[in-house]
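Re: the pair you flagged

First of the two:
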Amino acid sequence: MSRAGIQIGKAAEQTGLSVDAIRFYEKQRLLGRAQRTEGGFRLFSAADIERIRFIRGAQRLGFSLLEIRELMVLGRDGIETCAHVRDLLRSHLAGVRGKMRELRALEKQLAQSLRQCERRRKTSGDSHAGPCPVFEALAQKRGTNEG
């Protein structure tokens, strides 16, 4: 008896994922149990490949596996998902924007610390005399945040 489908290695190749990632999705029940050949090899259908691509695309947008599972249930049950997806996207976008603000602040702090080092190097040459101004600033900040 012949079964239609492709083996996991080919599925990995078609989706750009590793075999281990596909097995992980299966273990997490994001994929149904794959059919097996008589020799025990997994066989994936075109629908399985489409689902794997959906999962990976949703992950790229920042959705967690729990959220992806929820979206797949909503889609499977024919429930209108656009409003739910929009809310999730808004939440993720707000999170990304918050992280971007934090990264810009970190970039500013790092640039300021580097300027301090460069100024110190210009005034003292390569002699390394005296304490590092960045270490001093870090020690002061650490002391003001403890309490």
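Second of the two:
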Amino acid sequence: MGLRLGVASLCILAVTGISAARAQSWLQDKYMTGDWGGTRSALEARGVSLRGGYLSESAANPVGGLSQGFAYAHQVEAGFDLDLGKLLALPGGKLHATFTERTGQSLASQSIGSIISVQEVFGSGQNVRLAELSYEQSLFENRLTAKLGWIHASDDFATSPIYCHFQNNGFCGQIGIVINSGFTIFPTGSWGSVVKVGVRDDVYVQAGIYEVNPTLSLAPNGFKLGTSGATGVIMPGEIGWQPLLGPASLPGHYRMGGYYDTSDAPYLGSPIGGPQSTARGRWGFYLQADQMIYRPSAGSDRGLTAFAVVAYAGPDTALLQSFWQVGFLQKGTFAGRDHDTIGLAVNYSRISSQLVAAQTLANATVPASVSVQSAETTIELNYRVQLTPWSTLMPNIQYVMQPNAVSTIPNALVLGAQVRVTF
């Protein structure tokens, strides 16, 4: 897809007679649509930043899963950020708005049968919707930041830019926490607020509260702002340490957090096929770390970063009682490829012990009546090519072991491709 875009663009340039110098300038622009004759830069100088983008993820499983198949999904995004310090003389104030359109299919659900999606861009709002409308205020030289409005917990907690250098949703989006609770994830927002305090230059603490409303992700509700259907609130908290380690000042990010969701949820230990009980509240905690461990020279953006995540959630209500992941991301690959990346990561997700006990009991009563789940594991290897400053292409290979955490579904080999364009 990305290569086709590049070839098509060059053909248009040739047909319309645009000079090679101008074409070269376009391919080096920050945005695909350029600076609009200086209008974009002028707006940004006044405090108005307009943004847009296209993200697609394609995937096919030639081997394994429930059947062989192919799926394509995409997201188109448009929004703006207003610097109210420039516009209204309100220092530290910002207003954000984002609209999205998502469509496509999920290979995980239609062909593989896995719990974790192999296309992170699929789901959580397959329609046109208001993704964000928020006000942000920084005070005391950015030591205190508060945000409120139509927002997402996943933008503020348990997140790192490293994770979305992968196509699998087990890495990008930390989907385990989302599956286990009402942790809201882009682009489906809800009403919420978060406050972050910089205790020191390298230490912060933050806490938030967000509406939990399962109806908001439904197709007809792209612009639903009412609270009907809400089941409670989720309250995450996090402490982070962001050191520069060693004589080379290698950057690291270490986070410890947890959450409590006040919603009622199905009790996973209920008898299979019997009366369904409910449990009050959902909870969990997580540890995350990413640390650059090598770079060729001080201050260089090139380098190798290692990362790891460990999480645990209450087995009474959490489908994924525990999950962990480890991985590496190399930025700057070959000579002259300073912005290309190579990523390798493994994700392991274990099923709730309460659910496994209920499945085992059902089989003891009626042998082979249900499949007893255990754990699902995914490995991803990818290479992201920076085609231009405004476009990337990321071929990837994923391998899903025990899809749906059962041994009866063959392990699946997945070939994927992600295309990203910044308008």
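The chain has one domain: 31-422.

-B.
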